Amino acid sequence: MSHTRLYRHGVLEAEGFPVADVSDHVSDPACAIWFDLCAPSPADLAVISEELGLHKLAIEDVLHDRQRPKLDVYDSHLFLTVYGEQFDSGTGQLTSTEINVFITRNALVTVRENDRFDIQEVIRRWDASRDLAKHGVSFLLHGLLDVVVDGHFEIIQALDDQIEALEGELFDEQPSRELQRHTFALRKSLVQFRRGVLPMREVINSLMRRDLHVVEAAMAPYYQDVYDHVLRVAEWTDSLRDLVSNIRETHLSQQGYRLNAIMKKLTSWAAIIAVPTMITGFYGQNVPYPGSEQPIGFWTSAIVIVTASVGLYVAFRKRDWL
Amino acid sequence: MSHTRLYRHGVLEAEGFPVADVSDHVSDPACAIWFDLCAPSPADLAVISEELGLHKLAIEDVLHDRQRPKLDVYDSHLFLTVYGEQFDSGTGQLTSTEINVFITRNALVTVRENDRFDIQEVIRRWDASRDLAKHGVSFLLHGLLDVVVDGHFEIIQALDDQIEALEGELFDEQPSRELQRHTFALRKSLVQFRRGVLPMREVINSLMRRDLHVVEAAMAPYYQDVYDHVLRVAEWTDSLRDLVSNIRETHLSQQGYRLNAIMKKLTSWAAIIAVPTMITGFYGQNVPYPGSEQPIGFWTSAIVIVTASVGLYVAFRKRDWL
Amino acid sequence: MSHTRLYRHGVLEAEGFPVADVSDHVSDPACAIWFDLCAPSPADLAVISEELGLHKLAIEDVLHDRQRPKLDVYDSHLFLTVYGEQFDSGTGQLTSTEINVFITRNALVTVRENDRFDIQEVIRRWDASRDLAKHGVSFLLHGLLDVVVDGHFEIIQALDDQIEALEGELFDEQPSRELQRHTFALRKSLVQFRRGVLPMREVINSLMRRDLHVVEAAMAPYYQDVYDHVLRVAEWTDSLRDLVSNIRETHLSQQGYRLNAIMKKLTSWAAIIAVPTMITGFYGQNVPYPGSEQPIGFWTSAIVIVTASVGLYVAFRKRDWL
Amino acid sequence: MSHTRLYRHGVLEAEGFPVADVSDHVSDPACAIWFDLCAPSPADLAVISEELGLHKLAIEDVLHDRQRPKLDVYDSHLFLTVYGEQFDSGTGQLTSTEINVFITRNALVTVRENDRFDIQEVIRRWDASRDLAKHGVSFLLHGLLDVVVDGHFEIIQALDDQIEALEGELFDEQPSRELQRHTFALRKSLVQFRRGVLPMREVINSLMRRDLHVVEAAMAPYYQDVYDHVLRVAEWTDSLRDLVSNIRETHLSQQGYRLNAIMKKLTSWAAIIAVPTMITGFYGQNVPYPGSEQPIGFWTSAIVIVTASVGLYVAFRKRDWL
Amino acid sequence: MSHTRLYRHGVLEAEGFPVADVSDHVSDPACAIWFDLCAPSPADLAVISEELGLHKLAIEDVLHDRQRPKLDVYDSHLFLTVYGEQFDSGTGQLTSTEINVFITRNALVTVRENDRFDIQEVIRRWDASRDLAKHGVSFLLHGLLDVVVDGHFEIIQALDDQIEALEGELFDEQPSRELQRHTFALRKSLVQFRRGVLPMREVINSLMRRDLHVVEAAMAPYYQDVYDHVLRVAEWTDSLRDLVSNIRETHLSQQGYRLNAIMKKLTSWAAIIAVPTMITGFYGQNVPYPGSEQPIGFWTSAIVIVTASVGLYVAFRKRDWL
Fold this sequence. Notes:
alpha+beta, 7-stranded mixed sheet, homopentamer, 7 strands, Beta Polymerase, domain 2
């Protein structure tokens, strides 16, 4: 299903009309048009491309998915690729949805790879700030970017929460293997997320360049605001990397600690069991040792065993090995 | 509770008056006005915003907390976000208080998220350097930034002290699990602190740019001084990261050392116990071995056991395994 | 075998003619000529060099293989070195093929080290976009670079797949030594790949510089497209480094986990076996202990043994050591 | 004790005169004056400040110690902070001495935190190159910086020697705990040293900027020389970090090696002792096994024990476990 | 022994004449003179310095060895320091030879610290490209730099070969301690090599700057060629660091793997020996257990022992612990 909208002089005039009806308005500078295509066929793209005079290369890029936000400048239009991100807290898996955007002087075309990105939220945001609609494409594009970047914020918040949860597990007495799996999945998601988010800084920055004439002066603070958010997401991502390293390295150091603790216990108990065994071995010899076959032998043996065991136990306790 | 101050020609004329009284002076270039709002409601902000003509986006930013110092430039005013930091040495926890600042030509509005940041200290500092008060907003802003950055210095000093304390524990004979917890908490606080402090360099640097006309020429050295402090905090933070790594890695290496020492002890004692056990086993066989059922058997056994045990003990001692 | 092509006014006029025939067209601005030499002898190069007036140093560089993409600017021509990469998924080995390119105003000479790089693919791509052929050398060079960079994409995709496969192995119950070998080989290939790919950014960027007059205006978007791909490959390579680190470090942490698990099992079973041994030792002494030589002794012994063993087993189970 | 010197037209005219006598010459462009204050009281500083018209902020900075080389530019003078470093090879401890320098057109004021920095060496160096004295303050400042930076060179040399010594210990058969302590102390000193040395690059570079008019043209090569030294110290410091990492990581890897060696020995000897114990256990059963109570039993037992022990010993030797 | 050469109008006119004869030609712009001094005394340097008017500071730098390539610009001449490197594959040791170069308008003076750097190779290279000799000092300097940088290439190739050799050892069944020593030595050599090689980029780049007038236009591609080589050496050095890390970390991970394997074997065999010991202990009790003193006892015992041992062996095999 495709969405369409037509603004004239900042007022929403039509909505949901077929793409073909667009040709009348596309050259009217008072209009701002938006089309949205979801998982379009090459044929669909060809229609749009024809209508708006889009560059062959940009169309090709829509059909290939190569995972990096970018802004390409063509003579008659811009071509923007951004990524909407979704995070599944259960599995720790991150999925990206490519959104390709064609920006002409008075049209914005969004091409979504699939319907995982919530385009309704973009529409809601446009409707919430109707007073800015007079800024045309500049306004439409801002609404889209705002939703995308806010989405990134939500992800980074979710990742941060997961890290908090891992921290909770970290000092549990019982080391769980799950901790490793979670840390692994989290780091992987962070790497993926960085790839989709870091180049956004450059993309938004380029968009704001005067000579592209995309951003109208009155919209500049709004784009600056988006840019600030992008910067924060980037910095936060870096912080999370540090925090995950912190968890991972502390975990390693805890394993070392636990190993040492286990080894000390093992040594201690081994000694406490081995010493009586040695003594009974002595009293089990078939030679006439002092006390052999006599009650005094039993009492000596019993006393030595008990004394040695208790002595060792106390000694180990004192050294905190038990 | 909100604070207000009115300076005219560098002299404190009024204090503690209601925000509404401000409108008379807000357009008088001889005046410098300061309001402080602590955890204001949206309504409070709306009043101020109206009075001073603040941008909608800046007001929205006050209401969202997104943890990154920044400076936004709007047509009629600047919007600054900085963070006051508090550190609890006991728990090793760092808490940040967002301070939003609106800077117009002759008014400074500070909006604190909560009352953890000590605004009285700012007032004291203003009163301590009355001679600079004639520089208006430029003077007021300096006082605020000076207190914020001095606060960062105190935190970094406290973190440094904690690291010194960790170093003390590091070479203790008894490895304590607390060392891991402390190192973990410290690293986490450092990551958080960096996030609130590093962008300050850029923020202060931007403030000092000539074309913003915020900093009057005579105040320039004072801002330079704040900037120097910010640089030192940033460099010191990086040093602390290195020092914490040093502790962490030395700790790991110590665990390895201890494990080796334990293993050597374990091996040695195991041998010293197992050899006599083996010998008594021999003398416990129900076969006519030389000396079985005869005193000579007992003496041979006893001598072999003692010789072997002492010999092993001496040998291990020499190799420094015991 | 060498390939040749002659375009006049953007139309393919001749193909497969001998290199010597070229001199007639080499100074005709309406022509665009391509020669391809595979593993040429110094004599072959001397002929070409004479024909096109190539610099001695560039010719020398063809004969030495020093593994770094670069662009050298000479007065009358450019000298470009790029690398075609092949990856063998089985052995995890990466092999590079050096491709040297001389670029004059209307001739492109490609010199391949060996025939591992698929030059037919370049020809296919040229034929697929005949409409651009009028842009001469600029068009020819684009076709070549496009194939080279697409090759890099395939490699990085293959490396990514290998990493996915490693991840699968990572949480297998049975730690396999192969995981280490694979991780090792993969990291090595990544280092090698980076060396051949990262300088490509600079090379393509230099090619696009206006003052070199290599790229005709109409071809600019196509070179921009190649440049974007190069950037993505570079960023993706960095992501893969991170992912491999993730695997490597998780693997290390798993070894620690397994070691701890083994040690706990060892300790537990050692105790469960050692305690009955100690008891039977007691009942094997040749002294009149209570119950010696009497059925009650057997029963006591048996009950103590079973009780102790079962008790220990249950205790260890509870603490999750078994 | 304070030092003073007065040069007129490049000739040393007076020395050791009281600070108060200075006012006569301070405005004479033919003079170059030097004062040195060691650990001055605020009152002492006030006198100097008055005399030379120094900025309040610079004076405050003298009284606070915040550990970072820097250069502040005031209208009438410069304020420079550098650090003299001392290294105690015994304890591995590094101590820094802050040296504050005020630079006016014809006066140089050095303020030392304490007398650990050898000011006599600076005087010696001035006297050794009298021919340059005509360059006034530019000459005086160079002498000071030269001594400071040469001091840094000595420290880095001393640190390098310590690293060499550590390397010697590294492959000792007997792992010493001291190695850890030394590595720890060395890394800590390196971190501290970096903090005092790295910003020197920027400081010297700023001093050499034309528009400050500090460095006379004829002195430029001398400052360039100091700058080169600073660069080398910085690079050397980074190399040392790498070398210390090398030691630390090799040490860790050696611990792993030793642990494996110990474990193999432990396993081998445990087996060699446990097998005979098992055999004697068999022959100690109170059941009529073949050879029980008969000489043949003893001989069988003895032969089996010796064969098993020797066989195991030989087998372990072959596999290099013993 | 010192070398000298005199070129006039690009033709070698004299060779091996005494340094003192030089004064006649030193001001003749048609001449290009080369002197070489090996380990000169301060007196030797004074002569040269007088003759050519060299700066005192540059002369001092010759006498101090501070290990960093650099280019100093003086009014009448340039002063260049580069390092010739030698690598001993046997010991893995790297030794550097400082080469100081004075460059005036028509003289090149090379001062070698010792005779380890092969100056004959430089002479050979000059003689091999006589046609360029007309470019005077520019030509002479290129010959020298070319030999120095080619030397670096050989070292990096040798280091690369050593790394290949280490890789071979890495997956050997028998972990050898030598691997650690080699890795350690290799990393140390790499650190040292970097220090001598990385600043070369900046040095060569500065030499090529137009305003120094060192490099004649016709020689520019030759210097560019040297510069490319320097860049490749630098990048290769970085790759080698990565490869050594790869080896080091894989080695660590292998130690962990081996430790786990040893522990599992230890556990398995300990169990297989301990269980029969426990059973014979049972049958060695001096109590009337079922079968005591009867053949049935022996058979039961024998069967239980064999069954338990074989059962355990099979079980451990299945779990791949043996």
